[in-house]
């Protein structure tokens, strides 16, 4: 419930930035019923031959706001910026906030849904992440 509240607080900050009434984006997600909120735990074990697997292919997220708790020691998350894949380094005690396709459409493109992927690690520890989706 606290993560859902955090997502709604972030929506209010987006409203403020867009010059919209506080709570507007939350109302859009509520529509005739409440938004959905779900969490996914992912494990990416190391692979000595990463060219044989894809990790998590490049994609955008269909939803609204995604709150990602990534492993604080093992990297692997990358985003596409200006045609180049850029590492998103893990930062201890932090949350990566990603905006999905729904928010790109609702904001008429003022906020973008960023293409991202997870690359495989060749050795060491596996990578774990927890993603919570507010749609």
UniProtKB/TrEMBL annotation:
Domain Fe2OG dioxygenase: 35-135
Listed Pfam families: 2OG-FeII_Oxy (PF03171)
InterPro entries in the record: IPNS-like_FE2OG_OXY, IPNS-like_sf, Oxoglu/Fe-dep_dioxygenase_dom, Plant_2OG-oxidoreductases
Domain of life of the native organism: Eukaryota
First-tier enzyme category under EC: oxidoreductase
Any one GO molecular function term: 1-aminocyclopropane-1-carboxylate oxidase activity
Signal peptide: none
Enzyme Commission numbers on file: 1.14.17.4
KW Cytoplasm (keyword) present: no
Keyword Metal-binding: yes
Swiss-Prot/TrEMBL keywords: Iron, Metal-binding, Oxidoreductase
SUPFAM superfamilies per record: Clavaminate synthase-like
Protein name: ACC oxidase 4
Source species: Lepidium sativum (Garden cress)
């Amino acid at each position: 419930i606290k993560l859902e509240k955090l997502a709604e607080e972030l929506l209010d900050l987006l409203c403020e930035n867009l010059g919209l009434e506080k709570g507007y984006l939350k109302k859009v997600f509520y529509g005739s019923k409440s938004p959905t909120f779900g969490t996914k735990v992912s494990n990416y074990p190391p692979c000595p031959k990463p060219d044989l697997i894809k990790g998590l292919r490049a994609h955008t997220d269909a939803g609204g706001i995604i709150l990602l708790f990534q492993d604080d020691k093992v990297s692997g998350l990358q985003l596409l910026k200006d045609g180049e894949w850029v590492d998103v380094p893990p930062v201890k005690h932090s949350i990566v906030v990603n905006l999905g396709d729904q928010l790109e459409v609702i904001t008429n493109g003022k906020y973008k849904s960023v293409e991202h992927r997870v690359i495989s690690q060749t050795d060491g520890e596996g990578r774990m992440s927890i993603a919570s989706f507010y749609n």
